[in-house]
Design a protein that fits this description.
Blueprint (H helix, E strand, L loop, with lengths): L6 H9 L10 H9 L11 H22 L11 H5 L2 H33 L27
């Protein structure tokens, strides 16, 4: 940065909703606001954002609503669970931890959608000419699978 931001510029950066997740620097925000470097020609942001929304609606929200009760942590306190096999206990604990985290995945994905819909996560084009939307990513929930 060549100059210290004004109070207005700093507060606009601090109050932008996407400041929570994913984290980005003021430098990137300033490039975005002034439409410099990779932010000069941002393509349409609707389809990339819809991909995250559809993924969230098809994977994590149903997991949170329908599978989380099946693997509830309270079941680990029952006598039936205590008498079950070690492998079942490990399986149940692993699945319960995945579905417990699903509520956080939805929140992080909402933050990713906010960054993507305004164009802040645009990272230019890859070697094949496809748009890259990976400049700012809050979570990669595919690691769970």
């Amino acid at each position: 940065m060549k100059k210290i931001p004004t109070v207005f510029e700093y507060f606009s950066y601090m109050t932008l909703f996407t400041g929570a997740v994913p984290v980005y620097d003021y430098y990137d925000y300033n490039l975005f606001i002034s439409q410099e470097k990779q932010y000069k020609n941002i393509p349409n942001t609707i389809l990339p954002t819809l991909r995250i929304f559809i993924y969230m609606c098809l994977v994590w929200i149903p997991a949170m609503l329908f599978l989380w009760p099946t693997f509830a942590c309270e079941l680990m306190l029952t006598d039936e669970f205590r008498d079950s096999s070690f492998l079942y206990k490990v399986y149940h604990f692993h699945m319960a931890s995945i579905f417990w985290r699903s509520k956080y995945f939805v929140g992080f994905l909402l933050g990713d959608m906010a960054v993507r819909i305004i164009g802040l996560s645009y990272n230019g084009k890859d070697s094949n000419g496809n748009d890259k939307w990976n400049r700012m990513v809050g979570i990669n929930s595919m690691i769970e699978f």
